[in-house]
Amino acid sequence: MPPPHHRAGDLTEGPIARTLAVFALPVLGTNVLQSLSASINAVWVGRFLGEAALAATSNANLVLFLLLGTVFGIGMAATILVGQAYGRDDEVLARRVVGTSLTFFFAISVIFAVGGWLGTDAILSLMGTPHDALPLAGAYLRVIFLALPLMNFSALLMTILRGAGDSTTPFQFMGLSVVLDLAFNPVLILGLGPFPEMGIAGAAMATLISQAIALVALLILLYVRKHPLRLVGPDLAYLKPDPVLLRTLVAKGLPMGLQMIVISASALVVMSLVNSFGSRTAAAYGVAAQLWTYVQMPALAIGAAVSSMAAQNVGAGRWDRVARVTRAGIGFNLLLTGTMVAVLYAVAGPAMSLFLPTDPQAVAIAVHINALAVWTFIPFGVTIVLFATVRATGDVWPPLVILALSIILVRIPFAYLLEPVWGADAVWWSFAFGSAVALALSAAYYKAGRWKQARMLDDRSPGGEAPDTGHGLPRERAVVTRTALNPVVGAPESPTAPASPPGPRSGSDSPPSGGPAGSSAASRTPAGPDR
To answer: 10 Å Cβ neighbour count for 225?
Structure first.
């Protein structure tokens, strides 16, 4: 029998390793579906519309990646807040976070959609989109801008559900969206049956329709199931943004959003350096990076799971479990990512040949790049887990600083300084050097334990009084509960928390630096880092 306070989505009870594995698997499935969807859609566009159309979607998807990245941090902050609130059994606060987040996301998305629609041509021109692809990219991107509010809305709901301990429902509805997207692509591109022939705009319209259907179905399910985070009746007032929560979401989300900018900028720098070695090396690097997208997926899924589990246990004051969640996450990363790396080493030649069947020299270069760089995904995954735990407390700046240092002051200078001596190998070895620095810094910060003193919300409301918890608790009890959520030195502790919160000896769903470029440009979500 579960304990009386056990709830669906409760990640503060039960065996940690099994709970983490069960939670992480649907997240991994979601990442795989996203990448497969992007790859198959690229096949449809390339097969039916040609190379210019494929180049057009690649350019347009780069714009989409940056736009989704601008709100990525806010969504992560909302997820952590919901996780902490869920961990302390404060569903009122969780629904307040949901209301403020939804309104803010929708407003920002509409502004981006309108501005992007009006400025599509200017955006593509600034990117230097090839002349023959410019009209196609414009037609595709305008429809994508229409879909942007739906995409952001869906992404936010799915991340919030993970914060509430549910990774299965987001996976199911991502699957629905992907299946619909793949089905509508050829129908709308070619105009099959009663549908009009839309060409490249049809590929974007397939995304819009699939996102809309999946979002409506998800909302219906949440209300039919009477999910505790649904807004109904008086709770609809929470859609009016709460100034305190909004400031918290922006303040905590900004550093996580800035990570996307650092990652994107580093990708451009690395790609420009790789391009200087010629098209064959650039093609080989692109093929290796395409395969690395799948190698990094276990680490990203484990990081997302660790973040949600740690946030709930921080909220519950279960610091002993936070430490064990981190250790379990590191163990799973070593096992799963290590296995993926070993497999890619074993099949590197045949795998690269699938993409470069007529150029054995390029295949040899790709195999060489892979041999020098793919192993760095193992320390990369450990850094992911450490960052996930740190950010789950609301300590969001150190991961950004470590990321920036390891890329801007370590990896890129390493590649440029040693390139005259080592040639292109300087680029591949820079991944390892940057990865080692990121791991060392993140492990040192985790060990120091300063992140345990971070807080997502102030202990007291702007008026100086402890806020009502919504459960009829006395105000004194509310102060203790909120302090347990945000432990500070010398503050009273939760009765369920240990007197001195222990930490593991070493501890993202955020992308740290240090390894090879791992995200496909065609991906429609900012799920993978440039490594």
So the answer is: 11
Domain range annotation of the chain: 10-241, 260-521
User: Are 187 and 193 contacting, i.e. CB atoms less than 8 angstroms apart?
Assistant: yes
Q: Which helix (H) or strand (E) holds 369?
A: helix 360-373
Tokens, residue 238: 């929470």
Provide the CA 161 distance to its chain's centre, in angstroms: 14
pLDDT in tens, 486-527: 333 323 333 333 333 333 333 334 333 344 433 333 334 343
Q: Are 75 and 159 a contacting pair, CB within 8 Å?
A: yes
SS3 category, 419: helix
Please tell me the distance from the alpha carbon of residue 377 to that of residue 379, in angstroms, as a whole number. 6
Provide the residue type at 251 as one letter: A
Per-residue confidence (pLDDT) for residue 459, from 0 to 100: 44
Q: What is the per-residue pLDDT across 117-139, written as a single tens digit (0 to 9) for each?
A: 999 888 888 767 778 788 888 89
pLDDT digit string, tens, across residues 280-339: 888 888 888 888 988 999 999 999 999 999 999 999 999 999 999 999 999 999 999 999
- Quote the pTM value: 0.80
Distance CA 292, CA 20 (A): 24
Measure Cα distances from 258 to 254, 261, 264, 265, 302 in Å: 6, 5, 10, 11, 22
Of 271, 207, 251, the closest CA to residue 525 belongs to: 207
CA-nearest of 394, 508, 506, 511 to 87 is 394
